[in-house]
Amino acid sequence: MNNKSKKIALYSLGAIVLFTAFFYFYDAAIFEAEIVEETSTYRLDVSLKALLDSTALPQGVSLDRLISVGPTLKGILLMVVCLLGLPIMIGYRVATTNQPSENAEPKK
Predict the structure, then answer these.
(1) Which residues, listed in sequence order, are joined to residue 69 by a DSSP beta bridge?
(2) What contacts 24+ positions apart, CB below 8 Å, involve 59-64?
(3) Contact 94/11 with Cβ under 8 angstroms?
(4) Nearest residue to 60 via CA among 45, 49, 75
């Protein structure tokens, strides 16, 4: 692995961590999930924290009757785009942008 590939991987990994932390701690209900309770099954937009920790679900969900919470196909695709696609593109862009050197003269 050459230096440029390592730089891209490092920036992309850093961006993935930042985006994941942002969507975990910011309560944005954008990921569609299927919620299964004892008597019903329904779809609801929830936050990333609610997908990972069922105690963080919205108030309309009864935790006593809750059986499972899982992302739908739409939710999975949105997670892939938000948590992998965008951070990798940003990491690639940052790693491949030419930084002007201090000795270089500005273009006229």
Answers:
(1) 35
(2) 61/35, 61/37, 62/37
(3) yes
(4) 45
For residue 21, count CB atoms less than 10 angstroms from its CB and return exposed for 0-12, middle for 13-18, buried for 19 or more: exposed
The domain locations on the chain are 3-94
Q: What pLDDT shows up at residue 62?
A: 82
Residue 31, C-beta contacts closer than 8 angstroms, at least 6 positions apart:
45, 46, 47, 48, 51, 71, 75, 78, 79
DSSP helix, strand, coil percent of the chain (3-state; round to 5):
50, 20, 30
Span 53-75, average pLDDT: 88
User: What length does the chain have?
Assistant: 108
- Token match 């696609």: residue? 85
- pLDDT, tens digit, for every residue of 77-94? 999 999 999 999 999 999
Supply the pTM of this predicted model: 0.81
- Is the pLDDT score of 1 beyond 80? no
What span, in angstroms and rounded, lies between the C-alpha atoms of 88 and 81?
Answer: 10
